[in-house]
Write a structure and sequence with these properties.
Length: 678
């Protein structure tokens, strides 16, 4: 078809600009037109033929569209039928569900009706059992009724349920009151009283009725058991005073003996009625004590006697321990605890105040003894020759131990222990200042053994008190006085007294007992010695003083009975340092010193060093094993030896001599030149 069109186009283009001018051209044009017509007819025939061949496809498409429309119509029909079927099924299942609900409600209704019938029958049976006092069966039936009543909790709005519940509750109340009345009749001794077995079965009824009825029965029994007690031991009566607390507790013990069998016979063991009676007794007694103590402390009754208070408290604590033993309590799981003694706790401060007064009197007594001993001069503070500490210190700590033991018993877990710890601390300090320090004034007395012994006793006592105060603090903390109780300040006070006493002894030995020896040393003409001889007389006297006073009297009085000699060890170290320092200062004062004089002094220094070392030697065991004291003596005397050796080798003292000399009022001497032959 496209070829014919192209041919026609070419023909039109050929004749577009031409004009027909002859017949031949007309013929040619006609031929061309005929050819064009044939070509067009041929093209049309081809088109018709091709159109005829495409007709089945068109028909199939139209048929498919028709079928598709039919399918859509069928689908719509199915969908509508499905919706109709669903509506039908929903209606059917709704009716089935309604039938199920109706069946369930009918079943529940029938069940509830049966239960109501059972409950009504049980109520009638319970009423009959109650009238017959068949309490054992009644208790079982009460349990069943309780289970039935649980099913009616959701139907409290139903009038029949409300009415039946009211009737059951009224019957339970009547039954509980009847059991209470039976107990009253039985315990009143009437001849028509129910048997004990009936009463015990009645306890099962009270258990089934609940804790309220059981509590009423136990409370009633406790009040009845203690009715006579409350009448006898009223707080305002003589029998109710603190001096009769033992009678109170004896009454309860007697009650437990006489009525204990009855309690065991009438009541189940798990009710622990005897224990409940004791609890009621404790509450009543505690309230009586509180009223009585408040009246006495407030002045509306006779004044409160502290000793009587403590005696009553101790008896009360013993009674509470008796209850714990009787009913199986222990320290970790106490049954009663401080059920009665709690009434005394607010007044334990009065006891602490009384201990403060007693300690004040004791310390005043000890102080007077110290003053009297000082006034006696040569007499010692005690007639016991082997006493190493003042007897007053052991008495004081014995008083502390006994008081703390009593406080731990009567004031455990209360604030009174902390107050007692403060009281102890106060009077420890007072003892140190008023008793021990005055004893140190013996250092100003004539240097005899009695005065020395007094100072040694003070030193030993101060050390004993320091150590024992630390132990006392541990016991106070263990007893509950508080973790912050240390008594550290008091221990420091005793340590200072001890150090002052040691200094007093050192001064006595070096400055008083050895003053003649030092004077002889200074009076000797060290610059005129011509030859070195034996040890000098002054050093012999020094060694004698050290051996007699330090190694003799002071060792004997400072060594404790247990063999420890801490105070004596401290003394010997201080004596060694003081002797070495004094010797060095005197060397400086003895100028001029020749080489011979220096050699003699060095020899004397060795003798003095040996005498100092002998102070550490125990008569039986010899020198100390650690050698610490020997090292200290070597250090102190080594300074003196260094100075003396410097004199032998130099015209001037060594530069480090100044550190061994006193800082005030001393000038380094100018040493004379060594002369040949001297």
């Amino acid at each position: 078809m496209s070829e014919e069109i192209d041919a026609v186009g070419a023909l039109q283009a050929a004749f577009a600009d031409r004009r027909v001018t002859s017949p031949q051209e007309v013929v040619a044009v006609r031929q061309m037109l005929d050819a064009y017509v044939v070509s067009v007819e041929r093209s049309l025939a081809g088109l018709v033929q091709s159109q005829a061949s495409a007709q089945p496809s068109i028909e199939r498409v139209a048929q498919a569209q028709t079928e598709l429309s039919s399918l859509f119509e069928q689908l719509t029909l199915v969908q509508s039928r499905a919706s109709a079927a669903e509506d039908t099924i929903t209606k059917m299942t709704g009716q089935i569900r309604l039938l199920d609900d109706t069946k369930r409600n009918l079943t529940q209704s029938m069940t509830m009706v049966k239960r109501m019938q059972m409950l009504a029958g049980a109520r009638e049976q319970l009423a009959l059992l109650g009238r017959m006092r068949e309490y054992g069966e009644a208790a079982q039936l009460l349990g069943a009724i309780g289970e039935l009543m649980e099913h009616f909790k959701a139907y409290r709005s139903v009038q029949q349920v409300v009415e039946l519940s009211r009737q059951v509750a009224e019957l339970q109340r009547t039954l509980g009151e009847q059991v209470l009345e039976d107990f009253e009749v039985a315990l009143s001794g009437r001849p028509d009283a129910p048997a004990p077995a009936t009463l015990r079965a009645g306890c099962g009824v009270m258990d089934a009725l609940g804790g309220q009825y059981r509590g009423r029965l136990v409370t009633w029994y406790c009040n009845r058991a203690l009715r006579e007690y409350k009448g006898i031991f009223r707080g305002s009566e003589e029998a109710g005073l603190l001096d009769n607390v033992s009678r109170r507790y004896a009454y309860l013990k007697r009650l437990l003996r006489t009525d204990g069998g009855q309690m065991a016979e009438l009541f189940p063991a798990d009710w622990r009625v005897a224990e409940q009676v004791c609890r009621a007794f404790c509450e009543t007694t505690r309230d009586d004590y509180r009223q009585l103590l408040a009246a006495q402390a407030g002045g509306s009754a006779p004044a409160l006697d502290v000793d009587l208070l403590l005696g009553a408290l101790e008896e009360t604590l013993e009674f509470e321990q008796y209850l714990e033993r009787t009913f199986g309590g222990d320290d970790d799981h106490a049954v009663f605890g401080r059920a009665v003694s709690a009434a005394f706790e607010p007044y334990l401060g009065l006891w602490v105040d009384s201990q403060d007064k007693k300690l004040s009197a004791l310390v005043a007594q000890y102080s007077n003894q110290a003053v009297q001993a000082q006034g006696l001069g040569a007499l010692a503070a005690s007639d016991e020759d082997d006493e190493t500490v003042l007897g007053s210190s052991t008495e004081l700590f014995l008083f502390y131990r006994r008081t703390l033991a009593r406080a731990t018993k009567i004031a455990q877990g209360t604030d009174a222990l902390a107050g007692l710890a403060r009281t102890f601390a106060r009077w420890l300090g007072e003892y140190a200042e008023r008793v021990l320090r005055p004893a140190l004034q013996a250092g100003d007395e004539p240097p005899d053994e009695a005065a020395t012994r007094r100072v040694c006793l003070a030193v030993n006592t101060a050390e004993y008190c320091r150590v024992t105060a630390g132990q006392l603090a541990e016991r106070l903390r263990a007893s509950g006085a508080g973790e912050d109780v240390t008594l550290a300040r008091e221990q420091l006070t005793f340590a200072r007294v001890r150090d002052t006493g040691l200094e007093t002894l050192v001064r006595r030995v070096v400055d008083t007992d050895a003053k003649h020896a030092w004077r002889d040393m200074l009076n000797r003409s060290w610059g005129r010695l011509e030859a070195v001889g034996d040890q000098s007389a002054y050093v012999t006297e020094l060694a004698t003083v050290l051996e007699r006073v330090v190694g003799g009297d002071m060792r004997r009085h400072l060594s404790a009975r247990d063999g420890s000699a801490a105070s004596y060890d401290a003394l010997t170290r201080q004596v060694a340092a003081r002797v070495a320092g004094t010797y060095l200062r005197n060397v400086a004062k003895c100028r001029p010193v020749t080489e011979v004089g220096a050699e003699q002094m060095l020899l004397d220094c060795y003798v003095l060093k040996k005498a100092l070392l002998a102070l550490d030697a125990d008569p039986q065991t010899g020198p100390a094993a650690d050698g610490s004291y020997a090292a200290a003596v070597a250090t102190e005397m080594g300074r003196v030896e260094a100075v003396l050796k410097a004199v032998l080798t130099s015209t001037e003292p060594p530069e480090d001599l100044k550190q061994f000399m006193p800082a005030s009022g001393f000038r380094v001497p100018r040493w004379p030149a060594a002369r040949p032959g001297n």
